Amino acid sequence: MFSFFKRFFSNNSNLKQLMPAVRGEVVENAPLHKMTWLGVGGPAELLFTPADADDLEYFLTNQPNAPLTVIGGGSNLLIRDGGIPGIVVHLGKTFNTIRIEDDRIICGAGAKNTEISRAALEAGLSGFEFLCGIPGTLGGSVRMNAGAHGRSVADVLSELTAFDIIGKKMVLQRSEIPFDYRTNALPDNWIFTDAVLKGTPENKENIQKRMTEYRQIREKAQPIGVKTAGSMFKNPIGLKAWQLIDKAGCRGLKIGGAMVSEKHCNFFINTGKATAQDFETLGETVQRRVYETSEIMLEWEVRRIGVKTKRFSSFGGR
User: Fold this and answer.
1) Is 231 a catalytic residue?
2) Residues 240/231, Cβ–Cβ less than 8 Å
3) pLDDT in tens, the chain (318 residues)
4) Closest CA to 89 of 49, 123, 119, 129
5) What sections of the chain are H helices per DSSP?
6) Active site residue 301
7) Positive or negative torsion for Cα 69, 70, 73, 75
């Protein structure tokens, strides 16, 4: 992939000039670290925030032949220090919409999980309580089939709208989407724009009780008020990643400004001046030590994207 990037950039020194006449915002050398929960990472060579779904469709239909990356709320994302070559698409506030119709919640991909759970509570719809403790936005949650407390997005999703890489719009029913643990099998380069979620009418007091319980469990078990991306690794079948990490003696392990949480071993914390390389090295160290003690190779849950070092002259520093 690096060789492809190198060829592309040697022939296209000003990517912005190749952009179609979109209505959304286009920013060169755009800093991305503030858009992620970990607070690390290099810039996007070009950041495009579509004005709306029509603008996104126009861009995809007329885009230059450049590497394309999509980012959402940044809660489950590790952007490497060298930044992201090509065009980064970010769905902004225009896609942060929530509408209730009977037992359905119609959302934009930019809607926050916590806001969806609150809207469901106000509407007296159950099934969304697990979202109250999951950071990030719906688009990313659909991509990774986010879940907690025995529930996941796959359990409440009814319909999904997406665009493929050439701008073809698709509306998929839940039965057409193959979900698995913390993943789905749809192409990685599809962009989700809207979803219809289906709940079950229930007494608001019961819904509120469960949400309060879930928040209390989260506050007791997980680090709060710090820069973290949530669970760094997926749970192996029948096991807990945090227990394997603890068994490997990694609780509190620190590399540079990145540290394994003392409170929850599957959470890594930015102690203030961490780099993306600190986090990736810490993760690889944890993987190795877990394998040495348990003969299990942990699989990353956090999505790692970009290049590790600053290689392109069009990139600026933080």
Assistant:
1) yes
2) no
3) 333 344 344 344 589 999 999 999 999 999 999 999 999 999 999 999 999 999 999 999 999 989 999 998 888 999 999 999 999 999 999 999 999 999 999 999 999 999 999 999 999 999 999 999 998 899 999 999 999 999 999 999 999 999 999 999 999 999 999 999 989 999 988 999 999 999 999 999 999 999 999 999 999 999 989 999 989 999 999 999 999 999 999 999 999 999 999 999 999 999 999 999 999 999 999 999 999 999 999 999 999 999 987 554 443 333
4) 49
5) 2-11, 53-62, 113-123, 138-144, 204-221, 241-247, 276-294
6) yes
7) negative
Please identify which of the residues 151, 174, 182, 215 carries the catalytic annotation: 182
Query: Would you call 99 a catalytic residue per the annotation?
Result: no
DSSP, collapsed to helix, strand or coil, labels residue 183 as strand
Q: Which of 75, 152, 231, 261 is catalytic?
A: 231
